Amino acid sequence: MGKTIGIIAIKGGVGKTTVALNLGTVLAKEFGKKVLLVDANFSAPNLGLHLGIVKPEKTIQDVLKDRCSMKDALINHEHGFDLVLGSLHEWRMKQPHKLKQKLEPLKQWYDYILLDSSPNLNDEIFATIMASDELLIVTSPDHPTLSCTLHAAKVAKKRNTPIAGLILNKTHGKDFELTKEEIEDAAGVPVLAELPSDMLVLESLAHTTPSTLSGPMRELSIRYKHLAAQLLGQEYKDPRMSTKVKNFFSALVGRKSKR
Q: What is the residue-averaged pLDDT of the chain?
């Protein structure tokens, strides 16, 4: 059976959809996993827009209204993963438990089902929390976002859905930013990945391509691959020559210091 991972944030603009898309891309392309991405932001879906798909024929709303099956709404994407997208027409979630019911049968076909949740604290995000085996909370290194992150963690814990960890997104490595340790201490949840801010994300969005495919050797893409490996319980070795040289000299210094 596969695992359903909800990717949540109670704040817009932190890059939740970008994280879901790129994590799914890396799991599929780099690690050969069968991945399904579902847009669970029912009232304001934009996962499809990141891939240049504006009007999917069948949507997650159709599935939840029993107009079609989940399999009928599947889109096989050229990047190696499958999708169930949302309609841009306004719609209100009334039965948050129903998403889990619709997804459960698909877990026998997929290694990972990633849910891009709504940032609103309503039945939409509860649908994602209820349908997930575990959660990833996307945040950024500033106090306003941390406040929302603490709230998201509290809500998830009340619903008894395990939190795999935090994804610290859009970091700049500046002194004025909250540190990984400060965020972990406040949230009581480990930070699994620190994703640097990169203009490649905006460029890739303009070209409707995941940034991990546009720049596979960029630091941001390597961090995504490390994150995916963590979720799989594997080790990822950075293939870049600069990293190999750095590791060589670090090991050399370490051997000399032991003498």
A: 92
